[in-house]
Design brief:
alpha+beta; binds adenosine-5'-triphosphate; 23 strands; bis(5'-nucleosyl)-tetraphosphatase (asymmetrical) activity
Length: about 425
Protein backbone atom coordinates (compact mmCIF):
# COMPACT_ATOMS: atom_id res chain seq x y z
CA UNK A 1 0.00 0.00 0.00
CA UNK A 2 1.10 3.54 -0.69
CA UNK A 3 2.59 5.48 2.24
CA UNK A 4 1.47 8.94 3.28
CA UNK A 5 4.98 10.22 2.47
CA UNK A 6 4.64 9.03 -1.13
CA UNK A 7 1.28 10.80 -1.43
CA UNK A 8 2.58 14.04 0.10
CA UNK A 9 5.61 13.96 -2.17
CA UNK A 10 3.57 13.38 -5.34
CA UNK A 11 1.16 16.16 -4.34
CA UNK A 12 4.00 18.63 -3.95
CA UNK A 13 6.02 17.48 -6.97
CA UNK A 14 3.08 17.63 -9.35
CA UNK A 15 1.22 20.68 -8.08
CA UNK A 16 -1.70 19.11 -6.23
CA UNK A 17 -1.06 20.41 -2.71
CA UNK A 18 1.54 22.73 -1.16
CA UNK A 19 2.23 23.64 2.42
CA UNK A 20 0.49 26.90 3.30
CA UNK A 21 2.77 29.96 3.51
CA UNK A 22 5.70 27.67 2.78
CA UNK A 23 8.25 30.45 2.23
CA UNK A 24 7.65 31.48 5.86
CA UNK A 25 8.09 27.97 7.19
CA UNK A 26 4.45 26.98 6.76
CA UNK A 27 1.58 26.99 9.23
CA UNK A 28 0.77 23.84 11.14
CA UNK A 29 -1.98 21.77 9.44
CA UNK A 30 -2.74 24.35 6.76
CA UNK A 31 -2.44 23.36 3.09
CA UNK A 32 -2.92 25.05 -0.26
CA UNK A 33 -4.42 23.26 -3.25
CA UNK A 34 -2.26 23.88 -6.32
CA UNK A 35 -3.31 24.05 -9.99
CA UNK A 36 -4.07 20.30 -10.25
CA UNK A 37 -5.43 20.04 -6.70
CA UNK A 38 -8.02 22.74 -7.21
CA UNK A 39 -9.27 21.04 -10.40
CA UNK A 40 -9.59 17.68 -8.69
CA UNK A 41 -11.24 19.19 -5.65
CA UNK A 42 -13.75 21.05 -7.82
CA UNK A 43 -14.49 17.82 -9.65
CA UNK A 44 -15.24 16.04 -6.36
CA UNK A 45 -17.52 18.83 -5.23
CA UNK A 46 -19.33 18.98 -8.59
CA UNK A 47 -19.85 15.21 -8.63
CA UNK A 48 -21.26 15.30 -5.11
CA UNK A 49 -23.56 18.16 -6.11
CA UNK A 50 -24.63 16.36 -9.27
CA UNK A 51 -25.53 13.13 -7.47
CA UNK A 52 -27.20 14.79 -4.49
CA UNK A 53 -28.80 17.97 -5.86
CA UNK A 54 -28.95 18.04 -9.66
CA UNK A 55 -30.22 14.48 -10.06
CA UNK A 56 -32.62 14.53 -7.10
CA UNK A 57 -35.98 16.27 -7.15
CA UNK A 58 -36.12 16.18 -3.36
CA UNK A 59 -32.87 18.05 -2.56
CA UNK A 60 -32.01 21.72 -3.11
CA UNK A 61 -28.81 23.66 -2.50
CA UNK A 62 -27.72 26.45 -0.19
CA UNK A 63 -24.63 28.58 0.45
CA UNK A 64 -24.91 30.14 3.91
CA UNK A 65 -22.45 32.48 5.58
CA UNK A 66 -19.52 31.30 7.71
CA UNK A 67 -20.07 33.92 10.41
CA UNK A 68 -23.44 33.55 12.09
CA UNK A 69 -25.31 35.01 15.03
CA UNK A 70 -23.53 33.52 18.11
CA UNK A 71 -26.92 32.38 19.47
CA UNK A 72 -26.82 29.67 16.78
CA UNK A 73 -23.93 28.01 18.62
CA UNK A 74 -25.68 28.29 21.95
CA UNK A 75 -28.75 26.58 20.51
CA UNK A 76 -26.79 23.90 18.68
CA UNK A 77 -24.87 23.01 21.84
CA UNK A 78 -21.47 23.83 20.31
CA UNK A 79 -20.67 26.51 22.89
CA UNK A 80 -21.12 24.16 25.82
CA UNK A 81 -20.32 20.76 24.31
CA UNK A 82 -18.09 21.02 21.26
CA UNK A 83 -14.95 20.21 23.16
CA UNK A 84 -12.35 17.47 23.29
CA UNK A 85 -10.40 16.37 26.38
CA UNK A 86 -6.78 17.51 26.16
CA UNK A 87 -3.80 16.30 28.20
CA UNK A 88 -0.12 17.33 28.14
CA UNK A 89 2.92 15.15 28.77
CA UNK A 90 4.76 16.42 31.84
CA UNK A 91 8.06 15.15 30.45
CA UNK A 92 8.20 15.90 26.70
CA UNK A 93 5.38 18.51 26.73
CA UNK A 94 3.56 16.91 23.80
CA UNK A 95 -0.18 17.49 23.67
CA UNK A 96 -2.68 14.64 23.25
CA UNK A 97 -6.39 14.09 22.83
CA UNK A 98 -7.13 12.11 25.97
CA UNK A 99 -10.04 10.19 24.39
CA UNK A 100 -7.74 8.79 21.71
CA UNK A 101 -5.19 7.25 24.09
CA UNK A 102 -5.39 3.54 24.88
CA UNK A 103 -3.36 3.96 28.09
CA UNK A 104 -3.14 7.10 30.15
CA UNK A 105 0.51 7.88 29.55
CA UNK A 106 2.42 9.69 26.82
CA UNK A 107 2.47 7.51 23.66
CA UNK A 108 5.72 9.18 22.61
CA UNK A 109 7.94 8.96 25.71
CA UNK A 110 5.82 7.10 28.28
CA UNK A 111 5.81 10.16 30.54
CA UNK A 112 3.08 11.07 33.00
CA UNK A 113 0.21 13.18 31.66
CA UNK A 114 -1.53 16.16 33.20
CA UNK A 115 -5.18 15.76 34.10
CA UNK A 116 -7.39 16.02 31.04
CA UNK A 117 -9.20 19.32 30.59
CA UNK A 118 -11.90 20.16 28.11
CA UNK A 119 -10.93 22.38 25.20
CA UNK A 120 -13.56 24.04 22.99
CA UNK A 121 -12.78 23.54 19.30
CA UNK A 122 -14.47 26.64 17.94
CA UNK A 123 -12.36 29.49 16.54
CA UNK A 124 -13.34 32.78 18.10
CA UNK A 125 -12.94 36.21 16.59
CA UNK A 126 -14.43 39.71 16.87
CA UNK A 127 -16.86 41.44 14.57
CA UNK A 128 -16.34 45.17 14.15
CA UNK A 129 -13.66 47.40 15.67
CA UNK A 130 -14.30 46.82 19.38
CA UNK A 131 -12.80 43.65 20.79
CA UNK A 132 -15.15 42.99 23.69
CA UNK A 133 -17.42 40.11 24.69
CA UNK A 134 -20.43 41.51 22.83
CA UNK A 135 -18.46 41.46 19.56
CA UNK A 136 -17.45 37.80 19.75
CA UNK A 137 -18.36 35.65 16.74
CA UNK A 138 -17.25 32.16 15.76
CA UNK A 139 -16.03 30.58 12.56
CA UNK A 140 -18.56 27.82 11.91
CA UNK A 141 -17.34 24.36 12.95
CA UNK A 142 -19.83 22.69 10.55
CA UNK A 143 -21.98 23.82 7.65
CA UNK A 144 -25.06 22.06 9.07
CA UNK A 145 -26.30 24.88 11.29
CA UNK A 146 -26.55 27.26 8.34
CA UNK A 147 -28.99 24.77 6.87
CA UNK A 148 -31.10 24.38 10.03
CA UNK A 149 -31.59 28.11 10.51
CA UNK A 150 -32.73 28.38 6.87
CA UNK A 151 -35.12 25.43 7.09
CA UNK A 152 -38.30 27.51 6.77
CA UNK A 153 -36.87 29.97 4.23
CA UNK A 154 -36.00 27.12 1.90
CA UNK A 155 -39.10 25.02 2.56
CA UNK A 156 -41.44 27.92 1.91
CA UNK A 157 -39.70 29.58 -1.06
CA UNK A 158 -39.17 26.25 -2.82
CA UNK A 159 -42.62 24.95 -1.75
CA UNK A 160 -41.05 21.69 -0.60
CA UNK A 161 -42.97 18.89 1.06
CA UNK A 162 -41.44 16.29 3.33
CA UNK A 163 -39.29 14.39 2.77
CA UNK A 164 -36.82 16.85 1.30
CA UNK A 165 -33.22 17.84 1.83
CA UNK A 166 -30.95 20.87 1.76
CA UNK A 167 -27.35 20.43 0.63
CA UNK A 168 -24.38 22.67 1.22
CA UNK A 169 -20.65 22.64 0.48
CA UNK A 170 -18.34 24.98 2.32
CA UNK A 171 -15.47 25.69 4.66
CA UNK A 172 -15.59 24.75 8.33
CA UNK A 173 -13.08 25.47 11.07
CA UNK A 174 -12.10 23.47 14.13
CA UNK A 175 -9.24 24.24 16.44
CA UNK A 176 -8.22 20.56 16.54
CA UNK A 177 -5.88 19.55 19.35
CA UNK A 178 -4.00 17.03 17.23
CA UNK A 179 -4.30 17.82 13.52
CA UNK A 180 -2.26 15.67 11.20
CA UNK A 181 -2.00 12.94 8.60
CA UNK A 182 -1.68 15.52 5.82
CA UNK A 183 -5.13 16.79 4.78
CA UNK A 184 -6.99 14.15 6.83
CA UNK A 185 -7.34 16.34 9.90
CA UNK A 186 -6.78 20.06 9.53
CA UNK A 187 -8.11 23.15 11.27
CA UNK A 188 -9.62 24.63 8.13
CA UNK A 189 -11.40 22.16 5.89
CA UNK A 190 -14.36 21.76 3.58
CA UNK A 191 -17.53 19.80 4.19
CA UNK A 192 -20.31 18.50 1.94
CA UNK A 193 -23.42 18.14 4.06
CA UNK A 194 -27.07 17.31 3.54
CA UNK A 195 -29.82 17.76 6.08
CA UNK A 196 -32.66 15.54 4.92
CA UNK A 197 -35.96 16.35 6.69
CA UNK A 198 -38.43 13.53 7.16
CA UNK A 199 -41.64 12.69 8.97
CA UNK A 200 -40.89 11.15 12.39
CA UNK A 201 -41.35 7.40 12.15
CA UNK A 202 -39.88 7.25 8.62
CA UNK A 203 -36.41 8.24 9.85
CA UNK A 204 -34.94 4.74 10.07
CA UNK A 205 -35.95 4.01 6.49
CA UNK A 206 -34.31 7.21 5.25
CA UNK A 207 -31.20 6.63 7.32
CA UNK A 208 -30.66 3.30 5.51
CA UNK A 209 -31.43 4.96 2.19
CA UNK A 210 -28.72 7.57 2.67
CA UNK A 211 -26.10 5.09 3.87
CA UNK A 212 -26.65 3.14 0.64
CA UNK A 213 -26.64 6.24 -1.55
CA UNK A 214 -23.45 7.57 -0.09
CA UNK A 215 -21.51 4.31 -0.27
CA UNK A 216 -22.59 3.89 -3.89
CA UNK A 217 -21.29 7.35 -4.68
CA UNK A 218 -17.77 6.29 -3.68
CA UNK A 219 -18.09 2.99 -5.55
CA UNK A 220 -19.33 4.69 -8.73
CA UNK A 221 -16.31 6.97 -8.61
CA UNK A 222 -14.01 4.00 -8.54
CA UNK A 223 -13.10 3.52 -4.87
CA UNK A 224 -12.23 -0.15 -4.34
CA UNK A 225 -14.86 -2.00 -2.34
CA UNK A 226 -12.32 -3.64 -0.05
CA UNK A 227 -11.07 -0.22 1.08
CA UNK A 228 -14.47 0.98 2.33
CA UNK A 229 -16.39 -0.25 5.33
CA UNK A 230 -19.28 0.80 7.51
CA UNK A 231 -18.98 1.19 11.26
CA UNK A 232 -22.00 1.70 13.43
CA UNK A 233 -21.53 3.86 16.52
CA UNK A 234 -22.00 2.07 19.82
CA UNK A 235 -24.50 3.48 22.30
CA UNK A 236 -21.69 4.95 24.45
CA UNK A 237 -20.22 6.76 21.46
CA UNK A 238 -23.44 8.35 20.13
CA UNK A 239 -23.87 12.10 20.48
CA UNK A 240 -26.63 12.74 23.03
CA UNK A 241 -29.04 13.98 20.36
CA UNK A 242 -28.44 11.22 17.83
CA UNK A 243 -30.62 8.14 17.59
CA UNK A 244 -28.11 6.31 15.40
CA UNK A 245 -24.90 7.09 13.53
CA UNK A 246 -22.90 5.22 10.96
CA UNK A 247 -19.42 6.09 9.77
CA UNK A 248 -18.19 5.29 6.30
CA UNK A 249 -14.55 4.43 6.88
CA UNK A 250 -11.71 4.25 4.40
CA UNK A 251 -8.48 2.30 4.70
CA UNK A 252 -6.07 5.26 4.74
CA UNK A 253 -2.28 4.69 5.04
CA UNK A 254 -2.60 5.20 8.82
CA UNK A 255 -5.43 2.67 9.08
CA UNK A 256 -9.24 2.62 8.94
CA UNK A 257 -10.54 6.14 9.62
CA UNK A 258 -13.74 8.11 9.18
CA UNK A 259 -14.47 9.44 5.73
CA UNK A 260 -18.08 10.43 6.27
CA UNK A 261 -20.65 10.27 9.06
CA UNK A 262 -24.35 9.61 8.47
CA UNK A 263 -26.43 10.43 11.55
CA UNK A 264 -30.06 10.31 12.53
CA UNK A 265 -30.22 13.60 14.47
CA UNK A 266 -33.94 13.30 15.32
CA UNK A 267 -35.69 16.65 15.86
CA UNK A 268 -32.91 17.91 18.12
CA UNK A 269 -31.54 20.80 16.04
CA UNK A 270 -34.81 22.30 14.84
CA UNK A 271 -36.33 21.97 18.35
CA UNK A 272 -33.40 23.76 19.89
CA UNK A 273 -33.50 26.56 17.30
CA UNK A 274 -37.24 26.91 17.89
CA UNK A 275 -36.58 27.20 21.61
CA UNK A 276 -33.67 29.66 21.38
CA UNK A 277 -35.07 31.85 18.58
CA UNK A 278 -38.66 31.87 19.79
CA UNK A 279 -39.76 31.25 16.17
CA UNK A 280 -42.17 28.53 15.20
CA UNK A 281 -40.15 26.03 13.16
CA UNK A 282 -42.84 23.37 12.82
CA UNK A 283 -43.91 21.96 9.49
CA UNK A 284 -47.56 21.69 8.47
CA UNK A 285 -48.31 18.28 7.04
CA UNK A 286 -51.05 18.62 4.40
CA UNK A 287 -51.92 14.96 4.51
CA UNK A 288 -52.37 14.45 8.23
CA UNK A 289 -53.25 18.11 8.96
CA UNK A 290 -50.73 18.03 11.80
CA UNK A 291 -47.91 20.34 12.75
CA UNK A 292 -44.66 18.81 13.87
CA UNK A 293 -40.89 19.22 13.87
CA UNK A 294 -39.34 16.97 11.24
CA UNK A 295 -36.63 14.44 12.00
CA UNK A 296 -33.32 14.86 10.20
CA UNK A 297 -30.89 12.47 8.52
CA UNK A 298 -27.47 14.02 8.01
CA UNK A 299 -24.87 12.63 5.57
CA UNK A 300 -21.76 14.67 6.34
CA UNK A 301 -18.65 14.18 4.22
CA UNK A 302 -15.27 15.87 4.12
CA UNK A 303 -14.06 17.23 0.78
CA UNK A 304 -10.41 16.96 1.81
CA UNK A 305 -10.79 13.45 3.22
CA UNK A 306 -12.51 12.33 0.02
CA UNK A 307 -9.68 13.92 -1.96
CA UNK A 308 -7.14 11.96 0.08
CA UNK A 309 -9.10 8.72 -0.26
CA UNK A 310 -9.39 9.10 -4.05
CA UNK A 311 -5.65 9.74 -4.32
CA UNK A 312 -4.63 6.85 -2.07
CA UNK A 313 -6.99 4.48 -3.86
CA UNK A 314 -5.71 5.50 -7.29
CA UNK A 315 -1.96 5.47 -6.59
CA UNK A 316 0.16 2.71 -8.09
CA UNK A 317 3.89 2.31 -8.44
CA UNK A 318 3.68 -0.11 -11.33
CA UNK A 319 6.41 -2.38 -12.57
CA UNK A 320 6.05 -2.73 -16.31
CA UNK A 321 9.00 -5.03 -17.02
CA UNK A 322 12.55 -5.72 -15.79
CA UNK A 323 13.81 -2.19 -16.50
CA UNK A 324 10.70 -0.15 -16.53
CA UNK A 325 8.21 1.16 -14.02
CA UNK A 326 5.83 4.08 -13.74
CA UNK A 327 3.80 5.93 -11.14
CA UNK A 328 0.21 6.03 -12.26
CA UNK A 329 -2.95 7.44 -10.70
CA UNK A 330 -5.91 5.30 -11.73
CA UNK A 331 -8.36 8.12 -10.99
CA UNK A 332 -11.87 7.88 -12.36
CA UNK A 333 -11.85 10.11 -15.49
CA UNK A 334 -14.51 12.31 -13.90
CA UNK A 335 -12.24 12.99 -10.90
CA UNK A 336 -8.97 13.36 -12.84
CA UNK A 337 -7.81 17.01 -12.87
CA UNK A 338 -6.74 16.89 -16.52
CA UNK A 339 -8.93 14.89 -18.89
CA UNK A 340 -6.56 14.53 -21.81
CA UNK A 341 -3.05 15.29 -22.96
CA UNK A 342 -2.67 16.34 -26.60
CA UNK A 343 0.66 15.62 -28.28
CA UNK A 344 2.22 16.03 -31.70
CA UNK A 345 4.28 12.85 -32.20
CA UNK A 346 7.24 15.00 -33.25
CA UNK A 347 7.86 18.73 -33.09
CA UNK A 348 7.19 19.24 -36.80
CA UNK A 349 5.21 22.23 -37.97
CA UNK A 350 2.32 20.38 -39.61
CA UNK A 351 1.90 18.00 -36.63
CA UNK A 352 2.11 20.84 -34.10
CA UNK A 353 -0.50 22.83 -36.00
CA UNK A 354 -2.96 19.95 -36.07
CA UNK A 355 -2.37 19.04 -32.40
CA UNK A 356 -2.95 22.65 -31.32
CA UNK A 357 -6.18 22.75 -33.30
CA UNK A 358 -7.44 19.68 -31.45
CA UNK A 359 -6.25 21.08 -28.12
CA UNK A 360 -7.97 24.44 -28.65
CA UNK A 361 -11.18 22.68 -29.51
CA UNK A 362 -11.13 20.36 -26.46
CA UNK A 363 -10.39 23.28 -24.12
CA UNK A 364 -14.00 24.42 -24.41
CA UNK A 365 -15.20 21.22 -22.79
CA UNK A 366 -12.51 20.15 -20.34
CA UNK A 367 -9.21 20.94 -18.70
CA UNK A 368 -6.67 19.50 -21.16
CA UNK A 369 -2.93 19.92 -21.61
CA UNK A 370 -0.80 20.37 -24.70
CA UNK A 371 2.73 18.99 -24.49
CA UNK A 372 5.41 18.85 -27.21
CA UNK A 373 8.55 18.50 -25.12
CA UNK A 374 10.54 15.28 -24.79
CA UNK A 375 9.89 11.83 -26.20
CA UNK A 376 6.29 10.70 -26.57
CA UNK A 377 6.95 7.99 -23.91
CA UNK A 378 8.06 10.62 -21.39
CA UNK A 379 5.03 12.75 -22.15
CA UNK A 380 2.69 9.79 -21.54
CA UNK A 381 4.41 9.06 -18.22
CA UNK A 382 4.09 12.66 -17.05
CA UNK A 383 0.35 12.41 -17.62
CA UNK A 384 0.11 8.97 -15.97
CA UNK A 385 1.52 10.43 -12.78
CA UNK A 386 -1.24 13.03 -12.55
CA UNK A 387 -3.96 10.59 -13.54
CA UNK A 388 -4.81 11.95 -17.02
CA UNK A 389 -7.00 9.20 -18.48
CA UNK A 390 -6.40 9.87 -22.20
CA UNK A 391 -3.38 10.68 -24.35
CA UNK A 392 -4.24 11.99 -27.82
CA UNK A 393 -1.40 11.82 -30.34
CA UNK A 394 -1.21 13.42 -33.76
CA UNK A 395 1.07 11.53 -36.17
CA UNK A 396 1.68 11.47 -39.92
CA UNK A 397 -1.36 9.31 -40.55
CA UNK A 398 -3.47 12.11 -39.00
CA UNK A 399 -2.48 14.39 -41.84
CA UNK A 400 -3.73 11.81 -44.36
CA UNK A 401 -6.98 10.57 -42.82
CA UNK A 402 -7.83 12.84 -39.87
CA UNK A 403 -7.49 10.10 -37.28
CA UNK A 404 -5.51 10.27 -34.04
CA UNK A 405 -4.44 7.66 -31.51
CA UNK A 406 -6.04 7.75 -28.09
CA UNK A 407 -4.00 6.00 -25.43
CA UNK A 408 -5.68 4.60 -22.34
CA UNK A 409 -3.80 5.45 -19.14
CA UNK A 410 -4.53 2.16 -17.36
CA UNK A 411 -4.08 -0.41 -20.14
CA UNK A 412 -1.64 1.74 -22.15
CA UNK A 413 -3.45 0.47 -25.25
CA UNK A 414 -4.14 2.75 -28.19
CA UNK A 415 -7.10 3.03 -30.51
CA UNK A 416 -7.40 5.08 -33.70
CA UNK A 417 -10.27 7.51 -33.67
CA UNK A 418 -11.46 10.09 -36.19
CA UNK A 419 -10.93 13.68 -35.00
CA UNK A 420 -14.67 14.28 -35.01
CA UNK A 421 -15.15 11.30 -32.72
CA UNK A 422 -12.73 12.47 -30.00
CA UNK A 423 -15.31 14.40 -27.97
CA UNK A 424 -18.04 11.72 -28.00
CA UNK A 425 -15.39 9.06 -27.23
CA UNK A 426 -14.14 10.95 -24.18
CA UNK A 427 -17.60 12.07 -23.08
CA UNK A 428 -18.82 8.49 -22.88
CA UNK A 429 -15.96 7.57 -20.55
CA UNK A 430 -15.96 10.71 -18.40
CA UNK A 431 -19.68 10.89 -17.68
CA UNK A 432 -20.73 9.09 -14.47
CA UNK A 433 -24.10 7.33 -14.46
CA UNK A 434 -25.13 7.73 -10.83
P1 LIG B 1 -13.36 12.97 13.78
O1 LIG B 1 -13.95 11.93 14.70
O2 LIG B 1 -12.41 12.40 12.75
O3 LIG B 1 -12.84 14.18 14.49
P2 LIG B 1 -15.97 13.97 13.49
O4 LIG B 1 -16.78 12.75 13.80
O5 LIG B 1 -15.79 15.02 14.49
O6 LIG B 1 -14.55 13.52 12.90
P3 LIG B 1 -17.98 15.15 11.91
O7 LIG B 1 -18.28 16.20 12.89
O8 LIG B 1 -18.92 13.99 11.78
O9 LIG B 1 -16.51 14.60 12.16
O10 LIG B 1 -17.72 15.83 10.50
C1 LIG B 1 -18.16 15.27 9.28
C2 LIG B 1 -17.03 15.07 8.32
O11 LIG B 1 -16.27 16.26 8.17
C3 LIG B 1 -16.02 14.01 8.72
O12 LIG B 1 -16.45 12.72 8.37
C4 LIG B 1 -14.80 14.43 7.94
O13 LIG B 1 -14.85 13.94 6.61
C5 LIG B 1 -14.91 15.94 7.92
N1 LIG B 1 -14.04 16.50 8.96
C6 LIG B 1 -14.35 16.70 10.27
N2 LIG B 1 -13.32 17.25 10.93
C7 LIG B 1 -12.32 17.42 10.02
C8 LIG B 1 -11.00 17.96 10.09
N3 LIG B 1 -10.51 18.44 11.22
N4 LIG B 1 -10.26 17.96 8.96
C9 LIG B 1 -10.76 17.48 7.80
N5 LIG B 1 -12.00 16.97 7.68
C10 LIG B 1 -12.78 16.93 8.77
Amino acid sequence: MVTMDEIVSLCKRRGFIFQSSEIYGGLNSCWDYGPLGVEMKNNIKRLWWKANVQLRDDVVGLDSSILMNPKVWEASGHLSNFADPMADCKVCKKRWRADQLSEYKCPECGGELTEARMFNLMFKTFMGPVEDESAVVYLRPETAQGIFVNFLNVQQTMRKKLPFGIAQIGKSFRNEITPGNFIFRTREFEQMEIEYFVKPGTDEYWHKHWIEQRINWYYKLGIKKENIRIREHGKDELAHYAKACVDIEYLFPMGWSELEGIANRTDFDLSRHQEYSGQNLTYFDDETKQRYIPYVIEPSAGVDRSFLAFLVDAYENQKIDENDSRIVLHLHPAIAPVKAGVFPLLKREELVKKAKEIYNNLKYKWIVQYDESGSIGKRYRRQDEIGTPFGITVDYQTLEDNTVTIRDRDTMEQVRVHIEEIIPYLEEKIEVKF
